Amino acid sequence: MAGPKLTKAAIIESLHEKHGLNRADIHQIIDEFFEEVKDGLKNDQVIELRGFGTFEVRTRKGREKARNPKTGAIVAVETHGVAIFRPGKELKDFVWELRDNKPVNEND
């Protein structure tokens, strides 16, 4: 299972401590970066961040019969887009090494 969350606020604070930049400026840059990614996905572009991964939108076909997991009711689901992230080789290798060094928790 995943560990504690790393929030946008924590990232902003970390960048502020490392580089001494204004928190408001860091926040604005991060927000603008996310807007660029969303705009690219909206325009059917593949967002490739070398060494990290790739974001893209794929179409998931609709279905006449799907089940609402909360209520169990049968519902129709329209065709819709889903955001997909594929990690790059460097990120895959980095995470692989992390798992090798952590003890396996038998409760997971």
Automatic annotation (TrEMBL):
Statement: the UniProt record of this protein carries the keyword Metal-binding: no
InterPro entries: Hist_DNA-bd, Histone-like_DNA-bd_CS, IHF-like_DNA-bd_dom_sf
PROSITE patterns attached to this UniProt entry: HISTONE_LIKE
Keyword DNA-binding: yes
GO cellular component: cytosol
Keywords: DNA-binding
Organism domain of life: Bacteria
GO molecular function: DNA binding; structural constituent of chromatin
Function in brief: Histone-like DNA-binding protein which is capable of wrapping DNA to stabilize it, and thus to prevent its denaturation under extreme environmental conditions.
Entry similarity comment: Belongs to the bacterial histone-like protein family.
Protein name: Histone family protein DNA-binding protein
Species of provenance: Sphaerochaeta globosa (strain ATCC BAA-1886 / DSM 22777 / Buddy)
